[in-house]
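Dear Dr. L.,

I hope this message finds you well. Following up on our conversation about the binding site, I have prepared a predicted three-dimensional model of the protein together with iron/sulfur cluster. For your records, I am including the exact sequence and ligand specification that went into the calculation, followed by the structure tokens. Please feel free to forward this to your student if that is useful.
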Amino acid sequence: MTDLPKALRAVLAERSEVADPEVAEVRRAPDGTTKFALALGDGSVVEAVVIPMEGRTTLCLSSQAGCAVGCVFCVTGALGAGRNLTGGEIFGQYRVLVRTQALLGAPLNVVFMGMGEPLLNIPGIARAIELLAETVSPRRVTVSTSGIVPAIARLGELPRRPNLAVSLNATTQEQRARLMPLAARWDLADLLEAMRRYPLERGRRITIEYVMLAGINDSDEDARRLPRLLRGIPVKVNLIPFNPDPEFLPGLSTPDDARIDAFAASLAAANLNVTVRWSKGLEVSGACGQLRGRVPARPPARA
Ligand code: SF4
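The resulting structure of the complex is given below.
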């Protein structure tokens, strides 16, 4: 841009970069789910996923290059903490997915359910939501948190407020502390209160994600406690049968179908809106962190 003053060009070159993440690997499952490992400028690798749904495609983006929350059922957690992504790096994932999958103009949902805890990177996701707003309404954007209680209120104050999903996975504080060590710093009762206070658009519900682990959080007692906990909060519950990974997550297994059905039926009988969501793209290491765990970090592409 030779029309800019030379001194300004020097500052811009020093402080900014114009680049999209680089595609390090792509895997496509028979159901159409396409998972990308994307290399950032410093060599970090993050995941982003395209999930075809009826009438609308969902893009799942990462907010951090790793995760400090350490959920025992998650490969990203097993890989450990990583840095926050900038708003540009998050938006860059969207750009790569839309360009490579020819999705420009297609009806899209965007979910922050990839690698990282989005609410430990509010500046990054707030900027990304701003950048997305030109093409994707915040009503079509969902931020999923493991339950960083003070940040839920901050998310609710954003000028472009997204939908909220909470990864709950437990029905007691002790169980949550075993499964999600960092998130359990905040008490379950405080988390439920933060959900009650979240300013929802009319007709909207908070999505509750509940990863089902055999013998850990799938008992009849859990199925009775969950509706009691959620009473009075507008929610829809997604039961997610655990996606096994013997290499990174040994010792955890998926409940059998009968147990999952009985759990879901019990929630439905208590008037909860419940759906069982089998992980899409299992054949391509579809769950969070599973592809990244198998693609090594790259040497920095840029200083
Ligand atoms: S499930 Fe989410 S919050 Fe938990 S370790 Fe994985 S990426 Fe982090």
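In brief: The domain at 26-292 is CATH 3.20.20.70 (TIM Barrel).

With kind regards,
A. P.
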